[in-house]
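Please decode residue identities from the backbone states below.
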């Protein structure tokens, strides 16, 4: 008898997958070849869509308490400030989390590891995946811990094991893309003065550097180019003068310093039989917009409920066929977009200089001075506009909301609260037709009816229309009639394991 799922890798992607599988009541093991959680902070930025996912798990407030909200982006040129982009509540009315949050990845992971332990699950640290072999209705693996080898069988394997993924290597998925030429540094430092809550961007003619809050009230993160004549075994002192001048910071202490190269890659496929790729195992991004970790967490949220439904017998195995097309399409688009942006930002030629010294300090502050500009930037960066319009799980349109869209949030309605149940449910603003409510009730689908409001109209809803919502908070069917709802639930066996719950909210 094979166990349910093996999660390889206990970074944010693997930990979120584990937490959500646990909430669905699915058995799994989670392993990581390292001795424990990361001690150095890597990814910093947590975007609104990710906080919405964490809110489903009851973790958003804990993360926010430990992090720093980014209030603004300050632009500097030749050591002087030349413009400011205001970010405070830039997504107001679009999300319950209308901001970007900075939280060091090691502290982020600690919160997730603790939450998983509270659920009775511990990460198996110091355990390495050594081999994978398909075996019909299972995957046989070899696990190595110290000098001991274990052989086990799992129904599915989730590769959340990073850029050097053993799962990706085992399934032979080509990792196409490239590596940028420049060598970059990243330093975690303690400034001489109080922590700056803003993100600072240096836009000099030949340089590009970033400064952003790291550990709350203590440290800042500095990122920039290593000068080409100092790329051999560089130290912080090799970049100190440039970093302090460009970013307007005086460094008192250096907690750690490292160098790295930036990659842009997407695996040729995210699935091979019973093996899946998530996070950095499937896609690597430039640091533009802080999208990489958030995208990996989105992968985990997408796959978790599908694996849970299939292994528990509540959905057919071909539900899993939707994971790759939904997530690989977004990953390819995102990598291409961040690649183009990064090339322009880091370009040492005329195009890059014009962008850094003319367009960014003048155009972007002007655009984001208005609500429309701030909202457009928020939608772009926060991932709330990620959608699956071509998925076999998506159909229909009512108002501005279509199948495959993220469920729009409505200020004052608390329409995201029911999503904490991680189940299929029917939502509507106004009065859902009685025959549809009866059909949903017969199928065991919870129904949530919210009072119609101008805010609901602004969010794109159509009055009295119903929307079938997936466990990950995306719209499956917009404005289905009873027969369409019955056909969809029969196709995906949604009536299994659901609970009756028909409520009117805020009426």
């Amino acid at each position: 008898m094979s166990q349910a799922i093996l999660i390889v890798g206990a970074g944010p992607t693997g930990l979120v997958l584990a937490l959500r599988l646990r909430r669905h009541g699915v058995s799994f093991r989670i392993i990581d070849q390292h001795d424990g959680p990361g001690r150095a902070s890597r990814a910093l930025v947590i975007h609104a869509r990710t906080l919405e996912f964490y809110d489903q798990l009851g973790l958003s407030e804990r993360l926010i308490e430990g992090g720093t909200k980014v209030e603004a982006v300050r632009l500097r040129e030749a050591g002087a400030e030349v413009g400011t982009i205001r970010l405070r509540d830039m997504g107001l009315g679009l999300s319950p989390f209308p901001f970007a949050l900075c939280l060091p990845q090691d502290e982020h992971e600690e919160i997730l590891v603790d939450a998983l332990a509270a659920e009775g699950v511990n990460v198996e640290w110091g355990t390495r995946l050594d081999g994978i072999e398909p075996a019909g209705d299972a995957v046989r693996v070899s696990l190595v811990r110290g000098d001991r080898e274990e052989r086990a069988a799992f129904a599915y394997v989730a590769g959340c094991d990073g850029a050097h993924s053993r799962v990706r290597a085992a399934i032979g998925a080509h990792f196409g893309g490239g590596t940028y030429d420049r060598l970059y540094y990243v330093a975690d430092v303690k400034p001489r003065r109080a922590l700056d809550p803003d993100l600072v961007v240096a836009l000099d003619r030949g340089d590009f550097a970033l400064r952003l809050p790291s550990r709350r009230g203590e440290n800042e993160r500095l990122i920039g180019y290593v000068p080409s004549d100092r790329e051999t075994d560089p130290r912080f002192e090799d970049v100190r003068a440039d970093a302090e001048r460009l970013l307007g910071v005086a460094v008192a202490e250096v907690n750690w310093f490292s160098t790295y190269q930036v990659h842009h890659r997407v695996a040729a496929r995210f699935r091979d039989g019973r093996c899946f790729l998530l996070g950095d195992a499937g896609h690597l991004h430039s640091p533009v917009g802080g999208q990489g970790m958030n995208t990996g967490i989105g992968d985990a949220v997408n796959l978790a409920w599908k694996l849970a439904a299939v292994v528990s017998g509540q959905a057919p195995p071909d539900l899993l066929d939707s994971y790759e097309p939904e997530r690989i399409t977004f990953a390819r688009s995102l990598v291409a977009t961040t690649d183009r942006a990064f090339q322009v930002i880091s370009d040492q030629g005329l195009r890059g200089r014009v962008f850094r010294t003319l367009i960014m300090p003048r155009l972007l502050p002007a655009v984001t001075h208005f609500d429309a500009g701030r909202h457009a930037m928020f939608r772009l960066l926060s991932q709330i506009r990620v959608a699956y319009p071509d998925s076999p799980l998506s159909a229909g349109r009512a108002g501005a909301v279509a199948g495959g869209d993220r469920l729009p949030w409505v200020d004052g309605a608390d329409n995201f609260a029911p999503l904490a149940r991680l189940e299929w449910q029917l939502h509507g603003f106004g009065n859902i037709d009685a025959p549809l409510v009866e059909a949903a009730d017969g199928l065991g689908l919870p129904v949530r009816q919210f009072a119609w409001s101008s805010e609901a109209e602004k969010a794109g809803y159509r009055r009295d229309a119903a929307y079938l919502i997936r466990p990950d908070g995306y719209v499956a069917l917009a404005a289905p009639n009873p027969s369409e709802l019955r056909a969809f639930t029969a196709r995906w066996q949604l009536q299994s394991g659901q609970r009756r719950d028909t409520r009117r909210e805020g009426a």
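Observation: The two ends are 50 Å apart (CA to CA).
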